[in-house]
Amino acid sequence: MNWDDLRIFLTVSRSSRLDRASALLKQDATTISRRIRRLEHDLGQTLFERTRRGHVLTDQGEALARQIEDIESVAVKIQALAGQDRTVAGKIRLGVTEGFGTQFIAPALSRFANAWPAIEIDLIALSGFLSVPKREVDMSILLTRPKAGRLKVRKLTDYSLKLYAHRDYLRTHPDIAETRDLEHHTLIGYVDDLIYSPQLRYFEDILPGFSPRLCSPSILAQLELTRSGSGLCILPKFMGEAHPELEVVLPGQVSVTRSFWLVTHQDVQDFVRVRHLSDFLFDIVSKERDRLL
What we know:
293 residues; D-Maltodextrin-Binding Protein, domain 2; 11 helices
């Protein structure tokens, strides 16, 4: 048994799936599985139950994970006391929703990289979330405020969403003067059983009785469907207004406001590099408020 095996075990316990752990560790899934079995043999314990949902921790596995996390937390604090943070270097893994990450954060990160060239950023922009409590990421921008965990939570910003369509679509389809006119149009939205946050169930809130006919779990795919003239879609303002060919439909009747929450693990919240990134995120949303609301 060695620390590398324990690190692999902890990564699998946090991700629950070998393919995700393989991507995080940049190791072959077969190798990871073999090393987990070796660790179980060395300890004489079964650490995971192998299920269709992935690798689920047993009671022994949960106890080991807690012990390793305690060791990891102490090591992090020792590094800070040793002055490692004063070099303002190191890596930060930031998880963020797909649309906000690609359309808003990514274009701004060059400014941060120029200001802090020794800080490495892993920007994980997905249709879903990686877990801060499980340490899959150091920081995450979420749609819902978490209620538990060793976390520092701050509201980053509100943002608005509106109904958009390509101007050519509007010119070649029946007029839309009120919401009931949408019955004669194609709506674009999320795949219902793949929605990863209740905050994304826009149609239930602002267009009750309507459901999308063209669906994708990806907001970027929904944007491209809208830009191609396939139908109407509820999009964040920072995405819709970036494309002049898109027009707001029923602006006085269809509008919703949501929030982004910045969540940081307590073990890293005092790191200088983490504070710099946090300050940068609050700065860009403050300076570009018009794009959001």
